[in-house]
Specification:
With 366 residues, the protein is α/β, with parallel strands linked by helices. It folds into 2 domains: 54-185, 3-Layer(aba) Sandwich (Rossmann fold), CATH 3.40.50; 195-362, Nitrogenase molybdenum iron protein domain (Rossmann fold, 3-Layer(aba) Sandwich). Helix content is 39%, strand content 13%. Helix 9 crosses helix 13. The longest helix has 22 residues, at 187-208. The radius of gyration is 39 Å and the shape is globular.
C-alpha cells in the first residue's frame, strides 16, 4: 500500500514539472498607437457668382431685375426693335411688333415670319395692352421718347427698359446694341457686330480725314421738303464721317426732323441735298421747286436719294454705318469706291443675317 502511495506521489510531481524543451509563451504584442496625419487643407475652387438673376440699368438710370435672359420681347419703335432683330439674326427674340406695315423690305428676306406669325401690338404710341398680354412677353424695349410707357407695361406685369436715346449718334447705337446684348445674354454677338460697325466707320473716317474743303449737306425730312435733320440726329454723324458738314444750324430738336421754312433752307444754301428713300416726295420735286431754284445743290443737280431699298440707312441702327459708306462714295468716290461700298454692305448683312444682296436689291447702281 505504501508503495502504491509513493508511486502516485512521484507521478504527480513529474506531471507538475514543465515539459522538457517547452518554450515559454511570448508576451502578447502591443499595438502601437496609430499616427494621426492631419489632412492637407486645400482651398475650395472659387466659383463665379451666377450671372442670373441680373440687374439691368437702362439709359434713363432705371433698374430692371431679370431672372433669366429675355426671350420674348415686345415694342413698337422699329429702330429699337432692330437691336433685337440683328442680335437674333431675325425674329428669334421678338414676341410682339409694332407697325408691321412699316417694317422694312429687308425683313421680307431675313425675317419673313414677321408678316404672318408675329402679333402686332399697336402702332407707335397706340398700344393694345390686352394684345400685349397674349404674346407671352417677358420684357418691353422702348426708345427714350416712349419712356412714359415703362409704367404702363409694368402695370400689366411686364417689365420695360429704355435702350435708345433721343439724342442720336453712333454712340446711341453702340449703347443700344451693348444693352440689348446684356438683356438677351448675347454679349459676344453684340461685340462682334459692333466690331464690324466700328471698322467701317473708322476706315471711312481715315479716308476722309484729308478732305480740306468739306461740302455742306442738308438731309431733308420724310413727310415734306421743309423738314430737315438737325445736329442731334444720326444724319449729322454720317455727314461728318463722310467728310462733310451739316448745313443746318441753330435748330434744337431731339429725335426727329425739324420743320423749317423755305427761306431758312435757302439761307443755309447747301452744296448737296439728300432725300430719304422713304420720303413722300421725290428728288425731282426738290429740283423743280421754284423756291429752291437759287440753292447751290439745286443749280448743280446735286440732289440725291439717300439709300437703300432694303431698309433706311439713316436710322439709329447698326446699318447707319452703311449710310456713312454710301455718303462717302456719294461725296468722295475717289476716296471710297463703289466696289468697296457693295462689299461692305454685303459684309454686314452676311454677319447679321447670313445673306447677301444684289446691287439691284440694295438699290445702288453704279
Amino acid at each position: 500500500m505504501k508503495k502504491i502511495i509513493a508511486l502516485l506521489l512521484a507521478l504527480v510531481m513529474v506531471l507538475s514539472l514543465p515539459a522538457c524543451g517547452a518554450k515559454e509563451e511570448a508576451p502578447a504584442e502591443t499595438t502601437a498607437a496609430p499616427v494621426v496625419v492631419a489632412p492637407v487643407e486645400t482651398a475650395a475652387p472659387e466659383t463665379e457668382a451666377p450671372e442670373w438673376p441680373k440687374t439691368i440699368t437702362d439709359i434713363m438710370g432705371n433698374e430692371v431685375v431679370l431672372q433669366a435672359p429675355a426671350a420674348h420681347l415686345v415694342g413698337t419703335h422699329n429702330p429699337t426693335m432692330n437691336t433685337a432683330v440683328v442680335l437674333g439674326g431675325g425674329g428669334k427674340y421678338i414676341a410682339g411688333f409694332g407697325n408691321k406695315e412699316m417694317a422694312d423690305v429687308l425683313y421680307s428676306y431675313v425675317y419673313p415670319e414677321l408678316k404672318d406669325d408675329v402679333i402686332q401690338i399697336g402702332k407707335g404710341k397706340n398700344i393694345n395692352y390686352e394684345t400685349v398680354l397674349t404674346t407671352g412677353a417677358d420684357l418691353a424695349i422702348l426708345p427714350q421718347r416712349f419712356a412714359y410707357m415703362v409704367e404702363e407695361f409694368e402695370a400689366i406685369g411686364i417689365p420695360a427698359i429704355v435702350i435708345l436715346s433721343s439724342t442720336e449718334s453712333y454712340d446711341t447705337i453702340r449703347n443700344a446694341i451693348n444693352l440689348m446684348g446684356e438683356v438677351v445674354g448675347e454679349e459676344d454677338r453684340a461685340e462682334e457686330i459692333l466690331t464690324y460697325f466700328n471698322g467701317i466707320i473708322d476706315k471711312i473716317t481715315e479716308r476722309t480725314a484729308a478732305v480740306t474743303e468739306k461740302p455742306s449737306v442738308m438731309f431733308l425730312g420724310s413727310s415734306n421738303m421743309y423738314a430737315v435733320a438737325p445736329g442731334a440726329m444720326i444724319q449729322s454723324d454720317i455727314m461728318e464721317t463722310a467728310g462733310a458738314v451739316n448745313a443746318v444750324s441753330g435748330v434744337e430738336v431731339l429725335g426727329s426732323f425739324a420743320d423749317v421754312s423755305a427761306e431758312e433752307i435757302v439761307g443755309w444754301n447747301p452744296d448737296v441735298i439728300w432725300v430719304p428713300n422713304y420720303a413722300d416726295y421725290t428728288v425731282e420735286d426738290v429740283l423743280n421747286a421754284p423756291e429752291f431754284s437759287s440753292i447751290t445743290a439745286v443749280q448743280n443737280g446735286a440732289v440725291y436719294t439717300f439709300p437703300c431699298e432694303l431698309e433706311p440707312w439713316d436710322y439709329p441702327t447698326v446699318s447707319a454705318c452703311l449710310g456713312a459708306a454710301w455718303a462717302a462714295y456719294n461725296l468722295h468716290p475717289d476716296l471710297y469706291s463703289y466696289d468697296e461700298l457693295i462689299a461692305d454692305v454685303n459684309g454686314l448683312y452676311e454677319l447679321l443675317y447670313g445673306q447677301t444682296f444684289t446691287a439691284e436689291q440694295i438699290g445702288i447702281i453704279e
